[in-house]
Write a structure and sequence with these properties.
Layout (H helix, E strand, L loop, with lengths): L1 H31 L4 H26 L2 H26 L5 H21 L2 H23 L8 H26 L9 H39 L9 H18 L3 E9 L1 H8 L1 H18 L5 E6 L2 E7 L3 H16 L12 E8 L7 H17 L5 E3 L5
Parallel strand pairs: 4-5
Antiparallel strand pairs: 1-3, 1-4, 2-3
Length: about 375
């Protein structure tokens, strides 16, 4: 017995410290970076894992069926919270009924096995549920309408590997059905050799997923205008580089629209900056609704906006802008019910020698100047000099 306990305690110590580090890391990520629900679920999952390894080690040392059964239930709770966190991250509901179906029999079997010292059943019950939870987590992690990020792919593969590992444990325990605990050497070998590396790998990939999400959110905030939630100048320029390159590669049209709110300074002076901010948000919302997925909307600064309409020439862009112009004129601001909202639009097509956004901005600005010169509240298309 001593020859089994010492290696087991070493493995459990490694798993305990890994879980503790993960609980701390996830807790910091949750408290300092947006308090996302899925990060909290994973934090609690690793906290339960810390308790689980303590219970497991104490149960082995003292031969306590109660502690061993509690450890098995902790395994199941931790696996459940891992799956719940994946669902929360995906914005999906948690299928509680589907979780209860395998959870209840596995939990009862784990407790029964611990108190009756049925080693094969003990080796099958909680690993079976953990394997199901890991497999479901991997399937739920699959992205919808986009590709895996590198951290997501690593986490996905390790969750599948974890599920396969738990299946191997269940199979090994089943082969020893009816045999005494001393005959479970193959089960213990699989557990000792496979669990530490798979568990640590899954933990590291989970941290990378959270770090990737935080980095994505940071990039999004850096590229977004805080008032209107459309792209800022930096975000618009980066998106424009990709849009221009793609349009030139495939020989597709691309139109740039520069929009300017007419009389914006007078609106601020007459009704205050709250009304001005409401006008900016309202205009950005109208533009975002009127444009298609794939079109690019950004705020260049002040009351000036830039739009890139993909697969669209200046004539088609003008029709879209005319609808936006009319709708904006009908917009009512609670802070300025008597204010008349107007906007002018300048449009330019992509040219073969255009390399970046600024190459198109000059022409669109000239068209905008023409719209202002002709009386404002209108749409103007840039035309080359004859």
């Amino acid at each position: 017995m001593a020859g089994f306990v010492n290696p087991a305690i070493i493995v459990l110590s490694l798993l305990f410290f890994t879980s503790a580090i993960m609980a701390i890391a996830m807790g910091i990520a949750w408290s300092q970076f947006g308090r996302r629900r899925y990060v909290l679920s994973w934090t609690v999952a690793y906290c339960i894992s810390v308790l689980q390894w303590v219970l497991n080690g104490a149960g082995l040392l003292f031969g306590s069926p109660l502690l061993i059964s509690m450890a098995a239930l902790a395994i199941m709770a931790s696996a459940t919270l891992t799956f719940v966190g994946v669902c929360q991250r995906a914005g999906a509901s948690v299928p509680c009924k589907w979780l209860l179906a395998p959870a209840m029999p596995c939990a009862l079997a784990s407790v029964y096995a611990a108190f009756t010292k049925n080693a094969p059943l003990e080796g099958m019950a909680s690993p079976a549920y953990a394997g199901i939870a890991m497999l479901c987590s991997a399937l739920r992690l699959w992205p919808r309408g986009r590709r895996f990020s590198a951290p997501e792919l690593a986490f996905f593969l390790l969750l599948l590997l974890f599920a396969a590992f738990e299946a191997c444990l269940v199979g090994s325990a089943a082969l020893n059905w009816g045999h005494p605990r001393e005959n479970m050497d193959s089960y213990r070998a699989i557990l000792a050799l496979g669990l530490p590396s798979i568990y640590v790998g899954t933990c590291v990939s989970a941290v990378l997923v959270v770090a990737g999400d935080l980095a994505h959110e940071l990039r999004r905030r850096m590229q977004r205008d805080g008032l209107t939630d459309v792209l800022n100048r930096l975000g618009l320029e980066e998106a424009a580089m990709r849009a221009i390159a793609n349009a030139k590669r495939h020989g597709r049209p691309l139109a740039l629209v520069i929009c300017d709110l007419d009389g914006f300074k007078a609106l601020n002076d007459s009704y205050g900056h709250i009304a001005g901010d409401a006008a900016l948000r309202g205009f950005a919302r109208l533009v975002s609704i009127a444009t298609r997925r794939g079109d690019i909307v950004g705020r260049l600064g002040g009351d000036e906006f830039g739009l890139l309409l993909v697969d669209t020439d200046s004539t088609a862009a003008a029709e879209v802008m005319e609808r936006i112009r009319v709708e904006f004129g009908c917009l009512s601001l609670p802070q300025a019910p008597d204010a008349r909202l107007q906007a002018s639009f300048g449009i330019a097509d992509l040219h073969e020698d255009d390399q970046c956004l600024d190459d198109m901005v000059a022409r669109a600005d000239n068209a905008l100047y023409q719209a202002k010169k002709e009386g404002k509240d209108r749409v103007s298309i840039w035309r080359s000099a004859a």
